[in-house]
Amino acid sequence: MPSSVAAPPRERQQWLDVARGVAVLLVVAAHVVDFVSMRGERAALLEPALQVVQAFRVPALFFVAGLLLAGYRDRPWRRVVRDRVLLFAWLLVVWLVVERLVDVVLERDPWQSPLELLGYVATWFAFPDHNLWFLAGVLWMTLVVRLLARRLWLMLLVAGVMLSGLLPALPLGPLERFYVVQAPYVLLGVVLAPLVLRVGARASLRACWGAVALFVPLGVLRWYGVLDPLPGALVRVTVALTGIAALLAVGRLLAELRGAAVWAHVGRNTLAVYLVHYPLSLLVFRRLDVVAPELVPDNPYVAAVLVVAVGVGAGLGLAALVRVTRLGGVLTAPRWLLRLFDRLWPEGGRPTVLRPLRRRPVARRAPAPAPARLTLLAEGPGRPGRAAAAPAAPSAPLRPDPAPPSVGLCGEECVSAVCSGERRDAAR
């Protein structure tokens, strides 16, 4: 792909934020309906619609993450690691601890010692087992995107192989299937970012309705199993891609309506909503339902709507609190961690662990003074020849040795200059 179209536009597009807001709302609603069903109740009217959108809701979040990550493709490694990888890794650690504490409060798991908790967090990065796997997927795909930044064709090939299901089974924990076949949508988002952002900004409303109309029959046919005789990977990827196109079209349509700023605000705070809603839903349906059941409505539809609203509102409230108080470490990397990173990997330099070891200069000894030379005096009358000590020839005054060259600082030029100076002294 030509470099002139490799980077997406720099201006923020509201319709994309609206689409992100719709996508995260679908994710929250699906989780809440699952919690409602755990109470022994069913939201029968909501389940079919959520099952239809389930084919694309998480791939859509990954795809949009790829659209936003495309701007980091050509940036230096240090910037990518500092702004993205370090952030996602820190948030995973913090919110894994938060969810573990929620499990302790709900008596789902016993309290673990700090060492056991550290081992759990370290193991989780390779073997994710619950909803935070989305952040882990974005983290690993970010590294792949930067590694293959100059080879978009190879990035597309990797995404195709992973989405096709041709890879052997990998021991990635309970979410292995989702982890392997959904995270690669980040790569597709990066590759298609210039096209999607350009078309999305100029698409007509009629074309947007056409994208929605294309997905609906495919989603319904998949729900009723009509597409089951076809290859599973083909059906899954086709429905997901048409669903992503429909979601982006919905974002474009809602951006033209009054109140689009609300959806865009949710989309700009997707991370906060995603992180907060799951432990909050656990507390509502597992603890509040036991301690104060009157606060949780018996009607599954009312309960689902209320908990979705509370989850989204709590996420937005936390994001506002972080902005006002500048509370680091909850939704952003803390300042001490960034300062430590800057010290270990300074701007314009290499990481400390990758710096080559410098050779220590060897101190040179000052040359010893030349010994007096013995000369044989001529024999004179009445004076036998004898050896006497002749006065030493005047020598050049001793000068301090030049400082030993530092190869790491001045290179071969300094070494050659010092050597030529020594040859001149020897010639004298």
TrEMBL record:
Annotated stretches, region: Disordered: 373-404
Keywords attached to this entry: Cell membrane, Membrane, Transferase, Transmembrane, Transmembrane helix
Pfam families assigned to the protein according to its UniProt record, in alphabetical order: Acyl_transf_3
Molecular-function GO terms, alphabetical: O-acetyltransferase activity
Chain segments annotated as transmembrane: 21-40, 52-72, 84-102, 122-145, 152-172, 178-197, 209-227, 233-255, 262-280, 300-322
Major location category of this protein: membrane
Residues forming coiled coils: none
GO cellular component, one term: plasma membrane
Membrane topology: Multi-pass membrane protein
Domain Acyltransferase: 14-313
Subcellular location: Cell membrane
Bias (Low complexity) ranges: 373-396
One example of a Gene Ontology biological process annotation: enterobacterial common antigen biosynthetic process
Family note: Belongs to the acyltransferase 3 family.
Protein known as: Fucose 4-O-acetylase-like acetyltransferase
Natural source organism: Pseudokineococcus lusitanus
